[in-house]
Amino acid sequence: AVAVGKATSFNPKVVIMDEPTANLALKEIGKVLELTLRLKDHGISIIFITHRLEDIFTVSDRIFVLKHGHRVAVKEKAKTNKDEIVKLMFIGTDAQQD
């Protein structure tokens, strides 16, 4: 959270967060997600990289699924669910792109 606070002092248009909730306790995860949502509310775009589906569905509008560094799918959060995202993560193909 401190690093994100420092980054926002430069008035960025985009903030990249790579596994920001890894190795955190639940309370701290909640704080990071809350901060992320506040940044979104202020018009800052967030690239949120994580393996935690709960986090993805909390903060994302659009979900990009990558496998071995290649884009598998792009899904609008409102048009997908956790089961579909897990399938894309493991199978690695999407017959129907949004």
TrEMBL record:
Keywords recorded for this protein, A-Z: ATP-binding, Nucleotide-binding
Keyword set includes Ubl conjugation: no
GO terms, molecular function: ATP binding
Identification of the protein by name: ABC transporter domain-containing protein
